[in-house]
């Protein structure tokens, strides 16, 4: 069943191009985005004035990524909430709030309770879920299924990718229903998404240096992850993978926060993974991140730089350079997450841990 791979997670990482393609399939008819099993009509989508994503763990990170896209595309405010915090703080919800509950399993207790709370407050609830007929979609007003296929490894990989894609579809559907985007623009964004299975497949062919790096970092005491814009939630996701699989201290930061505290952590040889934006598409962001890389390198950090193909500006400051296919800004998380998954799995393997079944963790967390 593992298809020749040592772990299910290895196989699931390789299945990510299919997870993206299958999640997109059937959701654009050439004119409009179609949300499946939709019981929210265009009229209802039109009245939405705020989006709140609720989720846990990697699913929460998929919401953080999508916030950049949904706000940009719809001009609606998007909040992203940890499901376990949501209902305890008396969130502001109305009939015109769209709550998007993201869950691979559809059984996560905190997310389910957030759904129940949102419905009591009369918000509209859309589940983004990978498991047919599970509890969260059953209790929601509508559901958009991710089609990642069953995920056995405890660490979320292909499910996370599919969640990002599904959240993006929600953003495009809202933008179109609100009249902020016309069909031709939606068609362009959908084409960008449709090009991602190939970009992720290409990324997967370049991972040997990442595996080698994993072997080198087997005894690291800690690893930091930095990013800006969509690279920030990618950094959080990379750190979560490393914690749960390799039991290593790992933290993700917004690179701009470095000098507000975290830079004090930098010492000789500390590995720091930096998710770098495109120098062509985001020159300002790129130059800010470059100064962050220079700051940490000057203090002895070992810089591991994830960047776009042909980024000669950052290359001299990278102790290890991992270059990925060039993609549109909002698509970068779909390629940049891949090396972080492989790095975590490789370090865990080198440390002799079971990559599919990390200690103390369950695939679905059905207690609060
Ligand atoms: O089934 P869910 O998507 O609701 O699960 C949420 C989290 O428990 C899950 O993403 C967890 O953080 C993963 N093990 C991370 O790899």
UniProtKB/TrEMBL annotation:
Q: Which residues form the signal peptide?
A: none
Transmembrane region(s): none
Q: Enumerate the catalysed reactions.
A: D-fructose 6-phosphate + L-glutamine = D-glucosamine 6-phosphate + L-glutamate
The reply to whether Repeat figures as a keyword in the UniProt entry is yes
EC annotation? 2.6.1.16
Could you tell me which residue ranges the SIS domain spans?
A: 41-180, 213-358
Q: Where in the cell is it found?
A: Cytoplasm
Alphabetical UniProt keywords? Aminotransferase, Cytoplasm, Glutamine amidotransferase, Repeat, Transferase
One Gene Ontology cellular component annotation held by this UniProt entry: cytosol
Q: Which GO terms describe its biological process?
A: carbohydrate metabolic process; fructose 6-phosphate metabolic process; protein N-linked glycosylation; UDP-N-acetylglucosamine metabolic process
- What residues make up the catalytic site? 363 (for fru-6p isomerization activity)
Domain of life assignment: Bacteria
Q: Which Gene Ontology MF annotations are present?
A: carbohydrate derivative binding; glutamine-fructose-6-phosphate transaminase (isomerizing) activity
Q: Does the keyword Repeat apply?
A: yes
Assembly and binders: Homodimer.
Please give the function described in this protein's UniProt entry.
Answer: Catalyzes the first step in hexosamine metabolism, converting fructose-6P into glucosamine-6P using glutamine as a nitrogen source.
Q: What is this protein called?
A: Glutamine--fructose-6-phosphate aminotransferase [isomerizing]
Give the originating organism: Nakamurella antarctica
Instruction: Name the gene.
Output: glmS
The portion of the full protein included here is 252 to 619 of 619
